[in-house]
Write a structure and sequence with these properties.
Blueprint: H1 15-66, E1 108-110, E2 121-124, E3 140-141
Length: about 140
Amino acid sequence: MKMQLLKKTSRGFTIIEIMVVVVIIGILAAAIIPQFMGTTHDAKVSTTKSNIAELEAALERFYIHMDRHPTTEEGLKVLTEPPAGEESKWRGPYIKLLRPDPWGNPFQYRIPGTHRTSGFDLWSRGSDAADGGQGEAADIGNWGP
């Protein structure tokens, strides 16, 4: 009887095959990811515009009940808690929670407005968290695009 030597074959991927797959994934990611970068900003802008519309509606309900808009000093917090000395007229809360804008910064409120002189300005400072700005860092407000 002859003893046969069994040849063991390893089954698996070589380092070259793994590197080829990693390179292919890297090329695909480099081609696809930039297309979605602007989508994130657009989604934040849309969310901000929606939040501003919701806050405007709450400010108008506040106006109906209180016969005035909040002062700049009172700000938007009067939508969730009554102003001092006027608890009996206040019928809020007008919003459940005063959320920050999609960039994590508080919404800004000013009366009288500089953009809407007959009313109030309500805005997000955008991605740069500073007033003004251009392009993707531009402010988003209730006065228009």
